[in-house]
Structure formats: C-alpha cells, structure tokens
Amino acid sequence: MLAIEALQPGLVKQFAAIIAADRLGQAYVFNGLSGTGKGALAQWIALRLFCQNVQAGHPCGECAECQRILSHNHPDVVVLATDARSLKVDDVRELKSELSKSGVEGQTRVFVIEQAEKMTPGAANSLLKFYEEPVSGAVIILTTTAKNQLLPTILSRAQIINFPTPPRAQIKAQLEADGVSARLAAVVAQLTADVADAQSLTADESFQERITRVLKLAEQLANRDATAFVAVQANLLPVAKALPEQTQLLALLALVYEDALNRHFQVAAPAAFAAEPVVAQLAAQSAAALSASLSAILQAQVQLRQNVTFQSDTEQLVLKLLAIA
Ligand SMILES: [Zn+2]
Q1: pLDDT band, very low/low/confident/very high, at 106 (cuts 50, 70, 90)
Q2: Which PANTHER family does UniProt cross-reference here (predicted)?
Q3: Which domains does the chain show, CATH number per domain?
Q4: More confident residue, 85 or 11
C-alpha cells in the first residue's frame, strides 16, 4: 500500500472514484498543513492515471510507468518545487512551455506546483493562461499551506480540496508504511499530531535515546528505586540540554503514566508504550496513585514553562513520584 492511502484514505477514495468515473477536473488547489500528504496525493493521482496495472482502483506502484513517476522521471508528470523563498516567472516558464507543447489531443499530463503560495504575482499571472484556456487531458495541481495567499483569479478557477489533519491512528499507519517500527510509530503518534514533525522525530536518533532513558527512569520509579533521583542529573540531563528536549522528556514520562492508568482501567485507548513491561508494572499501582503521579508530572510541565530549571524541577518530581503510594 502507498503511504498516502494510509494517511488520507478519504481523499484517496474520493479521487479513485472521480478518476474511475472519468471526471477528473483540470485545476485543483490542495490546501492543508505541512505533512498532510498534499504532494503525495498529487503523485498518487499521476500514478493512478498512468499505471499499467491498476487493481481495484489503486495504482500498483511497481510497473514501469509507476516507477518512472516515483523516481521523478516521467515526461508527462512535471513537478515544480523549490527550496527558495519564492517561485518566480522563470521557474514557471519551463512548466508553461511543457503545457503549451501541442501534444496529442487529450493526452494525459499532470503538472504540480508545490508550495504555490511562494509564487510571485508575476509567476501566478503567467499561469493564468492555462486556467483560461485549459489543455484537454492536462491537470494542474497547486499545493499550498495558505490558500488565501493565492491569487483570487487562480482560486476561483480551481477546485479547492482542503486536507484534514489526519487522526493519530493514520499518522501511525503512515509512519509504519514509511518503514518506521511499530514500537516507535506508536510513541511518535501520541506525541505529535503534525505529520511533518512526526517524520522528523522518527529520523532523530537522540529522540530514540530519550525514549530509552525515560523508560529506564519509569522502571526505577516503578521499583521505588531511590537512585531515580540521581538519574535525573546522570541520565536525563545529558540528553535534554534545551527546553524543547526537556519538555519532550516530561511529555514522554506523562505518556508512560497515561498508558499505565488506561491499562489499570482496561481502557482500550491508543497507547504509546503498550508493549513495555514497565507499563504493566505501573498499572498494578492504585488508580489514586497513578492519578496523583500524572498530576505531579503535569505540574512539573507547568513549572518548566515558568522557568524552573529542568534539573531541580525533575528532581522534585521524582521525589514526589517515589513518595506516592
Ligand atoms: Zn503501476
């Protein structure tokens, strides 16, 4: 399965039906937050249109045509993307010359402009001709995180598709489709609802180290091991020098206790650490103890934002957690 089919199943289904009915429009604006799969859906549409082995409305991802699209080597699928701050007339020129090539009538062609809000007014204006005289068989897709920054003349001529922020279960499914382990995907999906953030976390080895150390601390706490206090300076501080990492450590610890509380009450909620033995061990504590622990962690999170140093904040937290019975 292609990752976008896990991430945005509703939109994929919608476009599968549109294409099956031969009703694909000529101009779309894909609007949504970063990481919601706008570019991936545009690519999926190209795959679906060119795949030689469509199965139940889905492109195979493996045939020669699919491979050419996936490796960005398909002559009839043109993607314009830039890391620069703006897309200028010159950038759009190549696309326009492709567009105006007098191909076979009705020849399928897909043009994608990513981050279209970067287009200068000149670049956007130079595209308008296509919107006024669409080329049969050609579809142009603009992706944007800010549709209101596009020219009204472009917006009014395109179908606007708003991309929903996917629920966590779908973020997890997408991460797994990208090759992330189920264990890591579960943690990341509980920590952030932003797909782009989630993807960068999975690639961050220091993040995985922080998970390991938080689980170790939780184990010491579950065992009422007083060395947990020393572990704050010895084990946590070295992997959490700046506020974002420190905030993340406390958030991870909160997830461990949330999972334990859910398991205690046998609630079937999505879990970050379902398979970790320490969660089962903590779940044996009383509901009152687990709730008190969670509110202590919450309080530590608030104090960290109020500029209490991470070390003293977390050491106090550990003392409280050890004392809760
Ligand atoms: Zn194929």
Answers
A1: low
A2: DNA POLYMERASE III SUBUNIT DELTA, REPLICATION FACTOR C / DNA POLYMERASE III GAMMA-TAU SUBUNIT
A3: 3-164 (3.40.50.300), 204-323 (1.20.272.10)
A4: 11
